[in-house]
Each structure stands twice: as C-alpha cells, then as structure tokens.
Design a protein that fits this description.
CATH topology of the largest domain: FAD/NAD(P)-binding domain
Structural class: alpha/beta
Radius of gyration: 24 Å
Strand order of the largest sheet: 1-2-3-4-5
Shape: globular
Helix content: 25-40%
Number of strands: 24
Number of domains: 3
CATH architecture of the largest domain: 3-Layer(bba) Sandwich
CATH superfamily of the largest domain: FAD/NAD(P)-binding domain
Strand content: 25-35%
Amino acid sequence: MAKEYDLVIVGGGTGGYVAAIRASQLGLKTAIVEKKKLGGTCLHSGCIPTKTFLKSAEVYRTMKVSHLYGVFSTDGTPTIDLNKIQERKNIVIDQLHKGVQMLIKKGKIDVYSGIGRILGPSIFSPLPGTISVELEDEVENEMLIPKFVLLATGSEPKEIPHFPFDGEKILSSDDMLHLKELPKSIIIVGGGVIGIEFASMLADFDVEVLLIEAAERILPQEDHDISIDLTKHLKKKGIKIFTSTEVLSYPSMNENEVVIQVKHADQELSIVAEKLLVSVGRKPTTQGIGLENTDIVVHNGYIEVNEYYQTKESHIYAIGDCIGGMQLAHVATKEGIIAVEHMTNKNPQTLNYSHVPKCVYSFPEVASVGLTEEEARSKYNELKVGKFPFKGIGKALVNGHSDGFIKMIADAKTNDLLGIHMIGAQVTDLIAEASLATTLDATPDEIANTTHPHPTLSEIFAEVSLLVEGKPIHF
C-alpha cells in the first residue's frame, strides 16, 4: 500500500534527521528511510566514537605526565583497557542515539528501516520521486509518495586500488573503531584529517605509527604554517612521517605483519607494521538509490545541486557528503535546514562556506575558518598577518599546554577578516568565535575591543587582533 508524504528523506544521518525535525516544525508530514541506524556515520562510526577514543587517549597521556602537576600515583604506570574504552564509546553512542529517536518521535516523523530507491514516473506519480523501500521484515516493498525528496545518503570509507579492506590487516576508519586490541605498530596511508586523528590517538596509546602522505605535507588543505607546526609535534610523539611518498606495491601479508613498498626521496623503501589503515578520504553513497531513474546530474559519484540544494529534478534535493564539498556533519545540518526552508518558501539565506569552521581533533588540535595565507595572497594585493603564541596566554601555561598559536589574516585595504587558523589545546572549541566574527564581518580592531575574560584561552583572539593592528600588548 502506498503512503503519501510532504517530504521523504533518504538517509537518517546528521543532515537527514535534522532536516526532518525542521520539516516537522514547518508542518510537513515527513518520513525518513534509513538502512542502518538514525544518526548515521557521525554518531555510529565517525565523529562521536572517534572522539571518545581521543578522550581516552588524552586521559592516558595526561596520567603519564601527572607528576608535572604535582600529582603522583602509588599504583605505578597507567595501563590501557581497550574493552573499557569500547564500552564507554558504546554508552555515549547509545545515549545520543536514544536522544535522536526521542526527537524524531516528538516530531511525529515516520521512520522506515530499509533501503530507499527513487522510482521513475509510474502509476504512483507522473514525476520521478516515489521512494520504494526495501524493508527488512517485509516481502513486498513499501511505496512512499512524496511531494519533495531529500537525499542525504552520506559517504563511506574510500578504498585505493589493490588495498581492499579485509577488517583484519587492511583496515578502514570504521574497522578501527571495533579493534579488540591495540596493534603494536600500524601504517597509515593518508595524512588528511582522518589519518592525522588516528595517528595522534594511536601514538598517545604507545602504538608505533608510520604515516604516509602523497602530498608534500600533511593536512595539505590547511595553512602551511599550521601543517608544519603539527608535523613537528607529531614527530615529537614518535610518529614517523613520510611525505611526498608514493605507494608502489600491493601489500604483502602474513600472520604477523603487513609490508608495502614506497618511493620516498627517490628511494624505494619497505614499510612494515602489524596493521595498515587506509585513510584517503570518503566516497559518496549514491549507487543503488535510483538516480538513473531521474534527470539528476552526477559527477564522479557526487550529486549536482544549486545553492539551495535542488537537483535538476526541482522537487528532489540533496545534502551532505553525497554532494561533495565540505564533508562535515555541521555542514550537512545547515544544508538540510536550508533545503527544507527552501521547499517551504521561507527564503533561507544560503550557506557561505568560507564562514564554516574546520576542525582536526589530534593533539595538538587544529581549527580554521576562511582562507589560508597562500590563498589570500593569490586574491588580495596586500595583507595584514599576525601570529600570536599560546605561550603568551596565562591560562595555556596553567593548563600545561602552551604549544601552538593563532594566525589571523586580514585585507590591509578593507580590514576584512580573511582567515583565522589555530593549533593548540582546545582550539576546536575556540574556533567558534572566529566563525562568528567572519559571519558578522567583524574586523581585527572590533575583536581587539571585545573584552575577553581573564584568565582564559579566548584572550588569544584579542592579542592576535592587537598584533594585526600594530598595537600588541603581550608580544
């Protein structure tokens, strides 16, 4: 039997379920089709579980240096219980999952557990967009007939040729979250966000880490100064970093190790470790959802949309990882809200991606908004650039984490903020001020004139702003 809806959302991840809640608030009869669990990658195999692991790594790292704070243990050195870490991860996920389910129930949003596919024009509708749901416990598919469709199907770990995931030796980021024991050593192929976070965490857990990156530096999308400083800190942890390095061979494996051949500095090297993590990005989940039954344009697997996330089929929208761009949970939620408000003629403001903060939860953390210095110099004639170290911030010294800095870039002619880049402890929380400043078109002098409480890490914004304005106080 066919059921009619105002909106059917295919994919119940962060972008999908937030869009559903907003649609419900706007009076749309809404359904979500989700093949796994509400919350998607971010909640179950991405943002949340990796951060619980990173928190455990932080606690372990802190315990090893507690004597520096005058705190001593009579029980000897700290130990790691991976089973307990996994248990805590699952408790956090379960609590958040129940919260999402409650919100969906509160919004009177129907949820179909199964695989949703778009049908072409049929007896149900003269337009493509009817969703056929392959239900787990039903022989016959459920048919959902919506006025609008929102595709929020997300992404999945990307494999590289000849390195298929096996869940034992060659691992994806998903596999890493289900380890039963920590390896003694690991090769990580890919020095982007995912690779860096796992490298930092595993090194903190005393795993030998060998990181391979094809580009000339890790985090190649971040500001050059940030990348270089992070490299220094990761090497200090004991991570061996091979940049400008090409993987030459298939991995060879035995019971105890994985071996790959790489080309580094014009030399061929054998890299050996117990396990290998492939972290070269994520690919869109757009296969098998019926796009071929529509006029929707797809490039390299990504769905093409306009600034309101409409596809070529104007009643079908798409958001999140399946459209490419900034594959971030907080971006997907904003895109979902904009899409739903556009469907309901609310005239939403489009998303300015240059105002979106990016975060890397390594230790030290990395966070940024806007243009890198290199990008800014290619677009503007004259810049004002300031760098202020956390060593000049009292709270950073109190916390025992004074490494790192903030870098502010402004247009010398207009004084507009162009980019803010940070490396250090807790910068993924601090970056929200930078995002707000760019959104409100604040200038360095306006940030400098904002009273920041003392002692806090946030004072670094005032200090770097004064430096950019040529009026430094603590520099």
